């Protein structure tokens, strides 16, 4: 069940349990779950709807607390941090990409990417340069002045990836990043995420129930009922071997 290790371990869960209580109903979502995720690769967590994928992602990224168990990110014990420290950790070290893009309707692609850099204290000039570089990296150099309404779904998701990338995070989390997209756009998105892991050494953790993504990840963890059922290392996609992934 265990896969051969890739780069350094950057995310680690040890005996994590999480339940939600709603009225009299208690749902045990994660049950004594342990895993290690490595830098420089795209790890995909797959599994049926409701098996706990998003909850696991939220816990590993510090968005949700565990009931029991330990969570380490970049050797920081997230389970020991208070809300302020967690927010700071996320600001400095993490990027997020969501199914629904989460873009501001009134801002251009470039402004969307610049915005979080201002929170990091980056100068206006550097923010502009970094935004341009990130948008170029996702193939949107020619779309920088456009607003979300003028972009396709795939382009919107690429803006969201550029926004996350421009922070130069060590950890990049993606929750169902291709669910709202057609097959071709979805494949472009997953290839970009894959390339970010390889080129920048970023830890990319992606949650999806889309089986088309499996062949594009370095490693696939299959979840069911709050547990990891299998842990597979995938052969490198041909495009990545030939250096033609876009
Ligand atoms: N805040 C919450 N309060 C109560 N129940 C919750 C909460 N968040 C998640 N759950 C429940 O936990 C279970 C796992 O949810 P989760 O979103 O982690 O699954 P998932 O595998 O990501 O599903 P999907 O693929 O449909 O997004 C579900 O039964 C869900 O209803």
UniProtKB/TrEMBL annotation:
Q: Family membership, please give it.
A: Belongs to the ABC transporter superfamily. Macrolide exporter (TC 3.A.1.122) family.
Tell me yes or no: is Transport among this UniProt entry's keywords.
Answer: yes
Question: What name does this protein carry?
Answer: Putative ABC transport system ATP-binding protein
Which Pfam families has this protein been placed in?
ABC_tran
Listed SMART domains = AAA
Family matches, as Gene3D superfamilies: P-loop containing nucleotide triphosphate hydrolases (3.40.50.300)
Q: Which GO terms describe its cellular component?
A: plasma membrane; transmembrane transporter complex
Which is one GO molecular function term here? transmembrane transporter activity
Keywords attached to this entry: ATP-binding, Nucleotide-binding, Transport
